[in-house]
Amino acid sequence: MKSRSVSSRVAARGGSTDVRGWRVADPALVERMEPRVLLSSAADFAGVGLAWRSGATTPTYTPYLLEGTIGADDSASGTFWRAGTTGRVSDGGLYFDGITRLGDGRYQRTGADGVLADDFEETNGSQFLTRDGYPAGWWFGDYDRVVGQEMEYLIQRAAPGVLPARDLDGSWRFTMLAVNGGTGASSNVSGTLSIDTEEDRITWTGTTGTVPRVRSDIDTISTRGQIATLQGEYFYLSADGGTLIFADMRTSDDVVYVGTAIRVDNDVTPEEVQGDFLLLWSLGDNVSGSGRTQFLQRVLSVESDGDYKIYDLDEWDDGSREPLERGEWRIEGDSLVLTRDASALRYALRIGRGGDTLIGASLTSGTSVTAIGGVASRTVSNLPPPPTPVISIPSVDSLGRPVVFSSRTDEAWYVADIAAKSGGPTPTGEMRVWIDTKNGRPYAAATSDAGLVLYSELSNGVWTYRLLANDLVSGPAITRSLAFLVTPSGQVNLFGLNASGEVVRYWQNGSTNPAGEYLYSASNLSVNQLDPRGLPTPGYTGGLEAYTTPWGGLNVAGLDSTGRIWTVWWAPGQPRWFVSNLSAIAKTAPLSGDITAFVSPWNGINIVGVNSLGEMVSTWWSPGSGGTWKRANFTSSTLGPTVSNATLSGFYISPTRGLNVVAIDSTTGDVILYWWNVARTGLGWTFTNLSTATGATGVSRITGALLGLEASDGSVNVFGRNAGGATIRYAVSGAITGAWQVQNLSAIATAE
């Protein structure tokens, strides 16, 4: 991925996220949540690679090996070897310190240096860990300051307990790139290798091209399936037993090679091989169009209508879907055959078990048949879909990166750095999160330097992203104060302000793209609705709150510089949007900080803020109030504590028909819940100190902005962060006056 595309977005780590962006679309989606800890597991891996750079007379080639561990936190550690005269030579640790998995089956390496130079112009990786559902993958690097490239084939290593006769013996289909160290000539070879551990031999048979040797003598076999030969070769068995990667690390005979082999699938169905693959061509001088070794990264799309298309991966990242070539495909025995339109060109790729891995076999052009090298791996994990998410909330991790916490039907908590996992831009402001009722999938929206970005988690757990302006010919910008609402019909609406303070709306327009994603329309409400009728755009100075009414009304509320509440609103049946100064209508004294808004099923609207004395004040409306806006001071009526004006979150509880606002005590720092329900009709509002109720001390104390919401089992939840940045959950099942519990989600959530 070139710096202009995905990799630059992944590298960005700046920005901040407003925790008041925490919202869920529909409390009915929240299921019962019980504490359960699932730990991500570390994975041992191996890689075989080849780096080349141009020289004054002949290219320089460096075969190498990697052995290491990808930790549960995606950190990487291990050992690196270069080829030497008599065999492999240790060169210390890995040239990278971790990986960042992306949503389209790719990954980036953090802290990566090159084997032959320090800087890359471009890098790319296809995921390879069996734990993540990928049987084999690859890595590609294109140097910046020198003419050269490097590539690797990678697998997660088999666990101890490999039985050679069962797991290694027999026939494997292979592809290799072989290099003559004396002449610098490189060529592809494909064929069959047969392992006989009883006789300590490996027999090489070239189907296309000439094999460097016809027999290798096995020296050692580890309990994990690593084979070392007397000829200086190393073989590694994958965790699923379907792939071998190998490299010749002895240079004294002037020939070295790097390759991969698979157990082929002779019974694969067309349906199993359909889909998109990340393809790395590893082409020798005899095939490369440049006349020298060349590594090319592509996207291979095997379509259900019998067509195939091959795309340049860089252009794919830039949004182009113009194929480099196209044609028809079919299955012949253990091979996927691609025939280019209007030419005699024909590719054959061997098919691995399950159809998730392809390796190069041959290229036929007229009467010429040449071996081709390379690996193609699925863009999407073959793991079963993760448990369905039932609640998702935004937060910020201890390093300041925006993350999404989710609880699923398996009753466990998960956390995802969605910018890193999707390859999308890093949020620079508020992040809003919801689960769309139409498909049950979590979504997040945020402002970014690239525009308004929508992240979404696919059914297989992969996060992707879209820039919403790309849905339109020219989408208006939202740069701050992002808010969202979901109408009773399930339509998602996003509101915010542009650089001029104008109100902008994005909304789902009822259409979908070919991938089934909901498309959006957009409008600058200030320019298109308010200005033509002489209505003022409120001078909003802080965050916005968007809310919908049971009859489908759309409302955006916020404070101006004098602390007055303004709403920009629309009601079904109205052709235009309107503006109202609710502080003037309800005679509400100026407020400061943030406000929160929520609506009850009996059509009661509540907009709550904090006045200059730190008192919590509600500006409210309901049909029973005679259709007029009124105000109420919860702090004075309950003799409750004053609160911080930047920590409010209001929400409705359906079982008890309750109204709730949670905030931080401005004196003690305790979490205070102001609440009312129908059982208190005639008694008025009251409050509960949640810090006392939970017994929260030390790291379990919430110190920042809050999110309150209800679960469908009647539990009440309050989320916030402690002083160290960990995300904390307070929860109670049943009545608010029941036994509250506390959880540190940052400590128990499984990283996705």
List low-confidence stretches. 1-40
Number of helices: 10
Rg of Cα set:
30 Å
Helix content, binned percent: under 10%
Beta-strand share of residues: over 45%
Query: Average pLDDT across residues?
Result: 88
Question: Strands of the biggest beta sheet: in what spatial order?
Answer: 10-11-12-13-14-15-16-17
Largest sheet: 8 strands, antiparallel, barrel
Shape: elongated
Distance between the termini: 22 Å
* Structural class category: mainly beta
What's the count of strands?
54
Descriptive account of the structure:
By secondary structure, this protein is mainly β. Among the domains are: 45-262, no CATH class; 272-378, Beta Barrel (Lipocalin); 385-471, no CATH class. It has ten helices and 54 strands. The strands form eleven sheets. It has an eight-stranded antiparallel barrel. The protein has an eight-stranded antiparallel beta barrel with strand order 18-19-20-21-22-23-24-26.
